[in-house]
Amino acid sequence: MNNIFVIGVGLIGGSLCLDIKKIYPKVKVYGIDTSNENLDMAVKLNLIDYKSSLDVLYKADLVLISTPVDVANKIIIDVLNNINSKSLVIDFGSTKTNICSTVDNHKKRRNYLASHPIAGTEFSGPNAAFSGLFNNKTMILCDTEKTDPNLLATAETIFRTMDMNIRYMDSFSHDKHIAYVSHLSHISSFMLGKTVMDKEKNENNIFDMAGSGFESTVRLAKSSPEMWTPILELNKENIVESLEEYIMNLNNFKNLLQNDKFGELKNQMTRTNYIKNILKGLR
Amino acid sequence: MNNIFVIGVGLIGGSLCLDIKKIYPKVKVYGIDTSNENLDMAVKLNLIDYKSSLDVLYKADLVLISTPVDVANKIIIDVLNNINSKSLVIDFGSTKTNICSTVDNHKKRRNYLASHPIAGTEFSGPNAAFSGLFNNKTMILCDTEKTDPNLLATAETIFRTMDMNIRYMDSFSHDKHIAYVSHLSHISSFMLGKTVMDKEKNENNIFDMAGSGFESTVRLAKSSPEMWTPILELNKENIVESLEEYIMNLNNFKNLLQNDKFGELKNQMTRTNYIKNILKGLR
């Protein structure tokens, strides 16, 4: 492993570089980003060694794509066209069906691996990157039967050395489940923040009355719209379905409340308390 | 301050006792609870010194009511009837209009202070109590013009010594604002947990795909149904209103998504990012 290229030097790309440099201490890391400011910052923070561009990709042993998902989907063909035949290309986006479909008939399809690390924070940009972000987190790899087995093995070794827990899934199932387990959480949080801010024009009421519970439920409303708008677009059908079920449950809860069905409300909350066991399993 | 009675020895009552014992090291703390098991635990954990009952309240210098809000509303008249004329009675429930209305014409109304500490965790019971829960948290005091000024001053001294930040509000405004800033968060979290658990019958999909974001947004779904069902009942009108606005925002978001209005979705998320500044103000 001599030359690694990272496209998108933000939270994910930057944190990946920090961990991979530990695995391959002599590797040279080249950064590509539409923001020259972010590239300069990434050099300053030692996330990358050099600024670079797509036309130099033929030198790459490994290409990491950690851009917003729409950008990844747009550049993946160019990336595959530019790499040499032994390169491994991995993308780290939160939706997988679309990009897997884009590359499906490319002659270098076997050089590509679709991944989604279940890791991140509500912060973004190279400044948000840190070593250890991926430690003990899940790494989902999709449609791995379409990736060259030797290149796949290289990727698996890297992720295991980063102490990640690898899971395998087809890209279609990935997008369906992730809509519920991740994308819906973000929307519920954004809309909760909006509802409260619309109502409480006087911010002092929020400052005075909000506790750690409010903080926890709206934390994801800090997330980057640049990252999330393309996710909404590329996983639209699944997200609409999950939103419809969430809204149905909320409407049902509201109707029970309006009709004084407190016993049934209590039963619903008691059954949902089972989430304690599920959250324990996350650790 | 010789004798303090705490009614309801759970997270709030138990944590209050720990802090107040530090302020008055010689005080005797008497606990009252419908659960004898909780009382025994509270003695064992040194939250209280003695088990007691409502008919001994005449000895109390201070009575702390930290039961579910429906219980507080039911027992407050008995409590006021049983105390001596110099006692201070404080309740710590999350809804205030109802209990203030219950005591409004009582001859000992001036012995009563309506409070709501913006503090808590998703855990409950005496085992969940800890010293420092209230440190640097907001304490909302309602309708204080109806409390005897000397007794109010005693309460203020206690809360300031506990490093709490006191705010004043009428009980009606309290219930209206708290529906948005606290109660709605709990419902959004319970229904998010329900939606995901209904969908993901195979828990492994949640274990594998859920990250810290999901954990944060469903944390409140661990909350106690025994505590929350009466809150829903006593603040029904305000909660229904907040739920309707939340559901309207979610429906609007879904419609924008279905109609490919990604620019407007991005604008909404960008505006909601302003929550960053509000959350900073909480610290």
What is the third-level CATH name, the topology of the largest domain in chain A? Rossmann fold
- CATH superfamily name of the largest domain in chain A? NAD(P)-binding Rossmann-like Domain
In helices, the fraction of residues of chain A equals 40-55%
According to DSSP, the number of beta strands of chain A is 8
Q: What string, H for helix and E for strand, traces the elements of chain A in order?
A: EHEHEEHEHEEHEHHHHHHH
Output the CATH class name of the largest domain in chain A.
Alpha Beta
Report mean pLDDT of chain A, rounded to a whole number: 95
CATH architecture of the largest domain in chain A: 3-Layer(aba) Sandwich
What portion of residues of chain A belong to β-strands? 5-15%
Main β-sheet description of chain A:
8 strands, mixed
Question: Largest interface, by Cβ-Cβ below 8 angstroms: which chains and how many residues each?
Answer: A-B, 90 and 90 residues
- Distance between the first and last residues' Cα of chain A: 33 Å
List low-confidence stretches of chain A.
none
Please state the structural category of chain A: alpha/beta
Biggest sheet, spatial arrangement of strands of chain A = 3-2-1-4-5-6-7-8
DSSP helical segment count of chain A: 12
Q: What oligomerization state is this entry in?
A: homodimer
